[in-house]
Amino acid sequence: MFSRFFNKASCQASQDSAIEAPMAPITTDNSPKNLVQSLVAGRQIAAAAAAEGDSCEFGSAHYFALCGLGGILSCGITHTAVVPLDLVKCRIQVDPAKYKSVFNGFRVTLKEDGARGLAKGWAPTFFGYSAQGLCKFGLYEVFKVMYTDMIGDENAYLYRTWLYLSASASAEFFADIALSPMEAAKVKIQTTPGFANTLREAWPKIYREEGLNGFYKSLVPLWMRQIPYTMMKFACFERTVELLYKYVVPKPRADCTKGEQLVVTFAAGYIAGVFCAIVSHPADTVVSKLNQEKGATALSAAKKLGFAGLWKGLTPRIVMIGTLTALQWFIYDAFKVAMRMPRPPPPEMPESLKKKLEGKTE
After folding, report:
1. In its UniProt record, which GO terms are filed under biological process (predicted)?
2. What is the reported pTM?
3. Average pLDDT over residues 161-182
4. CB–CB of 160/356 below 8 Å?
5. Biggest CA pair distance of the chain
6. Cα atoms found within 13 Å of the Cα of residue 295, Cβ hemisphere only
7. How do residues 86-112 score in pLDDT, each as one tens digit?
8. Are 154 and 41 spatial neighbours (Cβ–Cβ below 8 Å)?
9. pLDDT-based confidence at 357, cuts 50/70/90?
10. First to last CA, the chain
């Protein structure tokens, strides 16, 4: 199924290519005007060439590769930039008696470790979240097109929120497998005094003490944290952009400048980020506790923390994740603009669906 999908997604037209219409039998067409449906309802993209002004075709292998590169930049840069806040957040979660608040956490860290101490864990953060970003954004675009192809453009429009949720969950499943080893090293460096100061020290030590399990023991709670987070991140962002253009922005997206469109992207990203932080925070606390304590399980860590403990560090995480999500979407969209990639407008009802609805009302 995957090979069939990628052959179609790569938009390589041939004289004998078969074009699938949603919910219809396969038919062949030897004309040079063969078309493939895009995710955006009612929009079609010529298979033979990119649209005028675009550097690649929507849904092509080149397009997906650029989406992955944009994900590396957006996640790797932003997560590394907020390492000091992330370090304090993790320490509040695992040792609230010592690190009582955000400001207290910064003060204690500066006193004990100096300014360099705030950068602890930057290397696993950069490499881990770069790998995660590659899978998160790149595979999201892949799964979004794949699922649209499976259910047809009418259903993709009617159930687009479910489409965003399922595509983002599928992408994050693989993204967390890429992230987990680096996340384990990051948390160990940040929350276990004397364990290690660098990635080069942490990885051999984790493997020596816990084997491969040490890198993946928090994968399930990581899925519990990241999958709901990413589902909210993508679905809330997509629908918020749609609503902003519909009710807030005084003119259609096509009439907005690239700068104005990026402002809308940033605003929608921040709104999505606030919700992301709330729904994923308890699992984030468990992940921090798990990686701090050798031999702990997700259930034992949750019991030890208690209900109130699961919500420790929520305020700095809302600030961190809200800013992160907004900047990630901004960088990702700006990268698309810079690379002249196709940026489809918000979904519109397909003409075929409009005719069906009009027929029912007559």
Report:
1. mitochondrial phosphate ion transmembrane transport
2. 0.75
3. 96
4. no
5. 75
6. 1
7. 888 888 878 888 988 888 989 999 998
8. yes
9. confident
10. 41
In the predicted model, what is the mean pLDDT of the chain? Answer: 82
Write down the domain spans for the chain: 63-361
- Residue 26, pLDDT above cutoff 60: no
* pLDDT for 40 beyond 90: no
- CA–CA separation, 250 and 336 (whole Å): 24
- Angstrom CA distances, 20 to 8, 35, 121, 231, 312, stand at 9, 10, 49, 29, 51
Two tokens at 294?
A: 């050798």
CA separation for the pair 282, 298 (Å, rounded): 11
DSSP state of 11: T
Residue ranges of E strands in the chain: 18-19, 27-28, 35-37, 44-46
**Per-residue model confidence as pLDDT tens digits over 201-242:** 999 999 999 888 889 988 988 898 889 889 989 999 999 999
Long-range contacts, stretch 81-88, CB < 8 angstroms, 24+ apart: 81/327, 82/320, 82/323, 82/324, 83/118, 83/119, 83/120, 83/121, 83/122, 83/125, 84/118, 84/119, 85/316, 85/319, 85/320, 86/121, 86/125, 86/190, 86/320, 87/118, 87/120, 87/121, 87/190, 88/316
Long-range contacts made by residues 197-206, C-beta under 8 angstroms, separation at least 24?
Answer: 197/120, 198/123, 199/123, 199/124, 199/127, 202/124
Is the domain covering 63-361 a CATH 1.10.3470.10 domain?
Answer: no
Q: In DSSP terms, which residues pair with 37 in a beta bridge?
A: 44
